[in-house]
Design brief:
Length: about 220
């Protein structure tokens, strides 16, 4: 299964989500996972480097790929249960090539106007890619949400805008929590820094809601 974490907004939490979902799949689901870093900023590659230098953490493989990567992804998919692609923040060739083979495209957005403004363009890109890849599912996921009760309306409004473009929005969200930032530093997931914590539960809920949308969700892991 190929999961692409994409979108064109920097700082929305793409790399953070890709990394945490990778650990969920590898450590909790016991799946074989390859992270594909398409971002020239190498955020995920640096995280993997920090991670794999700590022998107490289960290792995760990562490669960097740029440009027309469709065929590379198709052949890599044969060797892993999951490919998790971190596409960086631009509408580029690697993003579109990944969308042409992805099973699920997950697009994180903060419930903020500048993030929400990217929804029409993302819908455009998604519908183009869906013509060559009709099996693709796509979802927006709200990230870094404010936890104050009087801000809940903003989250709901942002979800409504996404839905008005006909794209699924996950019920599961992430709230703004320092543990996301703190865990990244040492190549960890929030699931490893605080296994019973609220952030870990957010990641599990996001991953499970996404997997449940896949037509063949009884994955047998090698
Ligand atoms: N739910 C969250 N709460 C608080 N900080 C977050 C959350 N999600 C991501 N971040 C932080 O936001 C910053 C940008 O995230 P990142 O994943 O690098 O964004 P992107 O890859 O989309 O540019 C990072 O410092 C990350 O730790
Ligand atoms: Mg990133």
């Amino acid at each position: 299964m190929i999961i692409l974490i994409g979108g064109e907004k920097g700082g929305s939490g793409k790399s953070c989500l890709a990394q945490n979902i990778a650990v969920y799949l590898a450590s909790i689901k016991k799946a074989s996972v390859l992270m594909v870093d398409c971002d020239p900023q190498r955020t995920t590659s640096d995280w993997i480097q920090a991670r794999n230098s700590d022998e107490s953490l289960p290792q995760i493989n990562c490669i960097q790929l740029y440009g027309k990567i469709r065929n590379d992804l198709i052949s890599l998919e044969r060797n892993y249960d999951f490919l998790l692609i971190d596409c960086g923040g631009q509408d580029n060739l690697a993003l579109r090539a990944s969308m042409s083979v992805a099973d699920h495209v997950l697009i994180p957005l903060r419930p903020k106007r500048r993030d929400i403004k990217t929804v029409p363009h993302m819908e455009d890109v998604l519908s183009t890619c869906k013509m060559v890849n009709p099996k693709m599912n796509a979802s927006f996921v709200m990230t870094q949400c404010p936890s104050l009760p009087n801000q809940a309306g903003r989250i709901l409004e942002a979800k409504e805008v996404c839905k008005s473009y006909g794209i699924n929005v996950l019920d599961a969200i992430t709230y703004s929590r320092n543990i996301y930032d703190d865990s990244e530093e040492d190549g960890k997931s929030v699931l490893e820094l605080d296994p019973q914590g609220k952030a870990g539960n957010e990641i599990i809920a996001i991953a499970e809601e996404m997997l449940a949308m896949q037509p063949d969700n009884n994955y047998e892991f090698s």
